[in-house]
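ugh ok fine here u go
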Amino acid sequence: MGIADQCSVLWIVYMVVFLDVAHDSNAALADWKEDMDQFIEEVMQCRNVPGLSIALVSEGNVLLTQGYGNSETDPLQPTDENTLFPIGSLTKSFTSAVIADVLSQQEANVTWDTPVVKILGPTFVLDGCFRTEETTLRDLLSHRVGLEEDEILTVMGLDMNKDNFVRRVGHLKEKHPFRSQFYYSNFMYTLASKVAEYLAGDSYQELVKRRLFRPLGMTSSRLMDEFDSLTAVPNLAKGYGTSDKGEVFPYNIDTLSIVEVVDASGAIMSNAKDMATWMIFQLNGGKNSQGRVVVKEDFLSETQKPQVSLHDPKVMDRSKYPVEDMKNDYGMGWIEGAYRGFRRLSHTGNIASYFSNIFLFPSEDTGVFVALNGPMDERDAVAAMKTITWFVADNLLNEPPWMDSEGACKYPDPWVNSTQPDSGANDPEDAFPTVGDRSNSLDKYVGTYGHLAYGNLRVSFSESDIEDKHLRYTYGDYGSGRLYATNDEHTFKASIDGELWYYGDNLHFNDKFPGGVYMKFKDAAFGVMQSVNFPSIGNGNGPEFERDLLASTTWTPISQQCDGVSAGSEVKGHHLLTLAIYLAFFLSYIFDDGHPL
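structure:
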């Protein structure tokens, strides 16, 4: 038998086995598909979820890609397997994968553990010499750098851009000691993407498209910052919020442009078909559906390994719940843990009203992806996302589902009192400043305040209501709101309105921070406010903005002398060393005992 005949036989055998496995998987799905459909539809109804997309894979096969509900409610537009959803922080696994590919092709001696300062050079500075000299890509991607980061300012659209990000990040202060604990940071993923751009000589967007989307055949996936307006994106599900009365409403999806600076953390839009491909790639050691290596397995697998302990305070174990759902460690774009005794890689994503979830079970070679476009009420959206993912995972793992749709509509009851706020619940009512009237002059608060990392914050009088003279603030692309005087002098409670008005009652300012969001001014000589802390949560203090410090035009070099920081980039420096060696050989050739030939 010739080689061609042998290959034909092997191909036939492969196809027989492949089709047999696919048939068994699809047959198993058929046994519980009807129950799954009913469960999802009932949970969507009780949780006010407009539209949902799901993808299931097993043993290298796509079991299901399907949509439920509507991607748009007026006019009705059904969700299907091609409907795009912003996947939020699921983007992080794409960022770590593309960096894995960049590292695998580096001629220079660059690894996960090469200090970033040796790549970017001495202009790269972080808070503290040890952090500056030792921070690596592994640190950036595993959230253990420990620098401050403000979620609310990010939501408002940061007053900075990617071009000035590297120098701005040097002004972020320490939140936790370096490598002491897990501290989630979108900023550090932006920094990691800048390192990747420097090493590969291409933009982050192009790296993702050329190194991941195209070789994997993820033909529908896009990055949000590719578009001037997201309303022009075909098949993109609209996002929906819910009013205090439970009414569902759409909002301006162009406000998602806030991801410009943190695109490496949350800019990808994808659908069920492409995410099924992504799961198979991750489970298949970095290969695409044709078996071609897209990212080398030893580099990709490093992103899935535990790097830092999570110490999850909301652990689900059998002391309280019928099953265990453990989030033990963070890798690089992945959370490593266990569900019902099976090792699991997972991550959630959220941007505005879009929520997503992914479970991968490497030992079972199976995975599930769920995405939804509302409501913005985190309690309903997160409960729907979790319970649907659990139900589907139970069936994929051949485990009896531990929750029916009635239980899913009540979750987290009866295990957790869902009426109790997530934060500030143990604080007495009088622990926070309360809104009240004050007759003292407001003029001393008006002005522009700057932060060398976060940019500029402006406080001014309302121009639209002469009778009700009050203070307002503006920050970034979309941040604006009224400031209400409180019973604490120089402390104002902040609202949020304008393009982000829908956040006010649904996400950050009430539900997530029941103690309130405040702006706290600091007095100085002559009765003029010299600085302001914003946003301050409850009794805490937010970033400090200083009066008349125009961050957009000011770059204050960080006065930090670090002995270990070299005068140039060591990674790029290897090219200079090579050039010097060649030059030495050349000079030795044309000169003989100091005399030209």
